[in-house]
Amino acid sequence: KQYKSLSQITNAMHLRRKIENNVTVYDSLAIKKVYMNFNQREIIGNLIDEMIKGVSPESKYIKDILIATGSEEVAMALSDIISHPIRQVRQTALKILGELGHASLEVFSRILIDDEMFEREEGRRELSDNKWYIIRNSIFVFGLLKDEKAAIPLRLRINDPDVRVRREIISALERIGGEESVDILMMMAGDADKEIRESAVITIGLIGNPETAPLLISLAKTDYRICLKAINALGRIGGNEAKAFLSETLSDEDKIRELASGELSREDLKLAIVRSLGTLGDTGAIKIIKEFNENLSTTQKLFFKNSQVNKAIKEILSKK
Predict the structure, then answer these.
(1) 70 φ, ψ to 5°?
(2) β partners of residue 25
(3) Rg of the chain over all Cα atoms, to the nearest angstrom
(4) Which residue in 65, 63, 60, 70 sits closest to 105, CA to CA?
(5) What percent helix, strand, coil does the chain show, rounded to 5?
(6) Domain count of the fold of the chain
(7) Residue 89: phi, psi to the nearest 5?
(8) Given the DSSP bridges, would you call strands 23-26 and 17-20 parallel, antiparallel or unpaired?
(9) Residue 22: per-residue pLDDT
(10) Residue 47: phi, psi to the nearest 5?
């Protein structure tokens, strides 16, 4: 059990193979033969058993061996212990899976596609504990991979009745990022659960870019329930389109009234817009806030004197 030597061998093999268009290419047939002889379920299972025991002086090399092997067989074997009762074992397995890339993506995509994993008792929303732990950790692995392809299998489960599944999907999409993740989050922004739809919009603000502005503006205009969150997110993504929308809305009472839809406080809307412009913080955004403040009538200034909007304006301008 010379794990140090084995680690050196597997690392050398790892450097002499690569994946192109989902196909593994080897430098030579000899390398492929050595790799195939090593990449067997029994050998991998023995390595993982040793890793779980954690008693070998050289066991620290096992992690490197499994990562260098990088096969679906390794990912599959590790998927069996991601719900292990020992926390350290779970964490080690998840760290390795996060390094395996394509192999982990393939194995955990199959788990999320498997409808049997999402079956539950009639009338019950939550998955059983056993299934939940597997699904939770599977989604977590997708986040670790930070591969936009991982967003595709997540899309299949955005309407799962278990709110925990939907919550984990949002967390994974935040890590993954990219256009596909934003598209999925846009769909989740209409979720029946307040926490889920608001988290989805917040996450769009975290991973989006100026080109995402039209999507957030559309959310602000069409769903009063997430309007304030969408306005806040516009301040995070920035860009001219976001700034123009915030400016035009802040200075137009009719547009404020339209956004409020009879459901939101107009002052809350103005406060959100001012804070969003403050988050943008560039010269143009600060100029918009100053002009809004200067154009208030005497009556409005008296009315807004002790308002949250006025306090926010003073706070933002005092820092500039």
Answers:
(1) 55, 30
(2) 18
(3) 26
(4) 70
(5) 75, 0, 25
(6) 1
(7) -65, -45
(8) antiparallel
(9) 66
(10) -65, -45
**3 state SS of 26:** strand
Whether the pLDDT of residue 168 is over 70: the answer is: yes
CA-wise closest residue to 182 among 236, 144, 221:
236
- The whole domain housing 286 covers 209-320
**DSSP class of 251:** T
Count the residues in the chain.
320
Cα–Cα distance, 169 to 193 (Å, whole number): 14
Q: Let me know if residue 213 belongs to a domain.
A: yes
Q: Which residue has the higher pLDDT, 60 or 116?
A: 116
Structure tokens at 156: 């299949």
Strands (DSSP E) contained in the chain are 17-20, 23-26
Count CA atoms closer than 13 A to 144's CA, side-chain side: 21
Within-domain flag for 308: yes
Q: Are 217 and 248 in contact (CB under 8 A)?
A: no
Separation CA 192–CA 273 (nearest Å): 25
What pLDDT is recorded for position 154?
Answer: 96
pLDDT tens for each residue of 48-64: 988 888 755 667 788 88
Question: Distance between CA atoms of 27 and 36, rounded to whole angstroms?
Answer: 14
Of 252, 262, 199, the closest CA to residue 230 belongs to 199
- Whole-angstrom Cα distance, residue 306 to residue 311? 7
- Does some domain include residue 39? no
Report if residue 277 sits inside a domain: yes
